[in-house]
Amino acid sequence: MGIHYAVIGAGRQGTAAAYDLARHGGAERIWMADADRGQAERSAQRVNTLLGAEIAVPARLDASDPHAVAEWLRREKIRAFLSAVPYYHNLGLTHAAIQAGAAMTDLGGNSDVVFAQIDLSPDAEQAGIGVVPDCGQVPGMGTSLVVYALEQLDEASEVLMWDCGLPAHPEPPWNYRLTFSIDGLTNEYDGDCLYIRNGKTVRVPTFEELEIVEFPEPIGKLEAFTTAGGLTTAARTYAGKLKTLQNKTLRYPGNFVQLKTIQQLGLLGLEPIQVQGQAVIPRQVLHALWEPQIRAEAEIEDLIIIRVLARGKKAGKPADVWVDLIHYADKATGFTAMEQGTGWHAAILLEAIVEGSTPKGVIPVELAMSGAEFVRRAALRGFEVQLRTEAV
Fold first, then answer.
1. Beta strands per DSSP E along the chain
2. What is the CA radius of gyration of the chain?
3. Of all residues in the chain, what percent carry a pLDDT higher than 70?
4. Residue in 35, 56, 60, 61 with CA at minimum distance from that of residue 45
5. Whole-model pTM?
6. How far is it, in rounded angstroms, from Cα 199 to Cα 143?
7. Quick check: helix, strand or coil at residue 319?
8. How much is the mean pLDDT over the chain?
9. 191: Cβ contacts below 8 Å, ≥ 6 apart
10. In contact, 163 and 137? CB cutoff 8 Å
11. pLDDT above 90 covers what percent of the chain?
């Protein structure tokens, strides 16, 4: 008998994840759960059409009520689920997973939430389940490729990562299209990054350390700068083992100045301000004004980039390991590159948990699966990871 999965959050990434679970995860049924019943129905229909089979089933579910979610998981005999809702629901959903004895992965993105989930590891282990938070493109796939790069060296000292999701054909003024929740985007733009510097976990402010990174044409030169949430647990796992660990977000030239201006105006703030006697939250204003300008249409030609440079020694000699992934939207399925990178990474980890190949408890991505195993599974889905090692 096949497995009953659920995807909570039937948007872009959740739909892509459900498709992967059906193709590779041995799914008998996949519940597409969303607060918006209509969205759940559209998502389920799309998955079933792509598969040519009736596997996905819609359901209305409020992700903000962990006890109700746990009851629903038990009632429908769901063995494993994937959270594709905004990050602030993931701690409650981890409690629901433990209550229901159901495995879980999520799309992460907020370091404080992820660390609170990790604190629940003894409870998850006692419940006999595996939970891997902070999956997706970055965080997630980027971390898996960091692990892959480290596996190529006998000793490692530094790891640098750059990543992005961008339109293949940028249009001014923003040269950017949003293919996931705007809450997730502005969450990355606020707060601090967790890095390793001089062997210790440190916090580095967002929108700093601008540099230019060059890629093969037609991509060309991109800006790179600090944003939050890209490493999280890895910045603790490798503390004392690596001298340096960092990642930067890539954008088309000119975007850094735009984003820095938004930050300096205070538009990322979450504390209410008074405007003509009314309490207004700046970030909500930003969302209302900005999202209509950058929201991608249903189908968009986009790309994701993950580049990792690991420095250390191989066979006793200094060596650099480069790992590159450049991946584009899939015209056959209509899934964007971001949907594939984000949804499919979380699905891969959930499938591994169900197979019993990951530890029990709440496990960071970097400890849940080897880099080589991830690259093997990614190749089955069309991700071409380029690897080269250079003597220094």
1. 3-8, 27-34, 56-60, 80-83, 103-106, 130-132, 155-167, 192-197, 200-205, 211-215, 220-225, 244-251, 273-275, 278-280, 302-314, 317-328, 361-362, 385-391
2. 20
3. 99
4. 56
5. 0.95
6. 18
7. strand
8. 96
9. 111, 206, 228
10. yes
11. 94
Confidence (pLDDT) at 388:
97
Count of CB atoms within 10 A of residue 86's CB?
19
Instruction: Name the phi and psi angles at 28, rounded to 5.
Output: -90, -35
Q: For the domain with range 3-135+341-374, which CATH number is right: 1.10.3710.10, 3.40.50.720, 3.40.50.2000, 3.40.1390.10?
A: 3.40.50.720
Asked whether the predicted pLDDT for residue 299 surpasses 80, the reply is no
Q: Residue 356 is which amino acid?
A: G
Task: Please give the CATH topology (third level) of the domain spanning 138-337+382-391.
Answer: Dihydrodipicolinate Reductase; domain 2 (3.30.360)
Q: Are 358 and 367 in contact (CB under 8 A)?
A: no
Rounded CA-CA distance 207/228 in Å is: 9
Domain boundaries for CATH 3.40.50.720 within the chain = 3-135+341-374
Burial class (CB in 10 A: 0-12, 13-18, 19+), 326: middle
Q: Please list the residue range(s) of the chain that carry CATH number 3.30.360.10.
A: 138-337+382-391
Whether 298 shows a pLDDT value over 70: the answer reads no
Q: pLDDT digits over 250-291, tens only? A: 999 999 999 999 999 999 999 999 999 999 999 999 999 999
Token pair for 153: 């060296």
- Decide: 196 and 242 in contact? Cβ < 8 Å: yes
DSSP structure class, residue 392: -
